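Researcher: Good morning. I'm working through a list of sequences from a screen, and I'd like to move beyond sequence-only analysis. For each chain I'm collecting a predicted structure so we can compare shapes side by side. This is the next one on the list. No need for commentary yet; just the structure.
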Amino acid sequence: MTPGRTAGSRQRAAGSTRRLTVDVRRSTLGHPRGCAGTRRSALGARRSALGGFTLIELLIVISIIGILVTLAQPYYQRAVTAAKEATLKEDLFILRDVIDQYYADNGKYPPALNDLVDKKYIRRIPKDPVTGSAETWALVSLTDDQGQQGGIFDVRSGSDAIALDGTRYSDW
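Model: Good morning. Structure tokens for this chain:
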């Protein structure tokens, strides 16, 4: 025991602390955020008065989103064009490789692209990614000295559009 304190004063001190804790819990248990009863009504009134966005705030946010979309659009268009160009290069590589395989197996070039599909060199003729059609491929036929065509030995894009590097797709 410490000097100046009696056993009874220690019990009162412990009892008052316990009572204080119980009182605080009772006052905060009724409110979901633990606010005191008097503050709860003032806070609720203030929240209901401020419960939304003003028209100016909404217009500012919409304007900022519009500016960001406008800035991002050219990058998006460039990415789409670059993807189409990469697909065109891959399709041209595959078609030229399949034509060479056909020539190696048969000793002549195919008379049409459908012959590559019929003989199971490819599953289907790919679409030209620039024009969006499988019918627009520009076929380059082999002609001999007498002017007779010996079949298709090269394929090019049927589009006259200009690529990102400044060349025409039909020259690839």
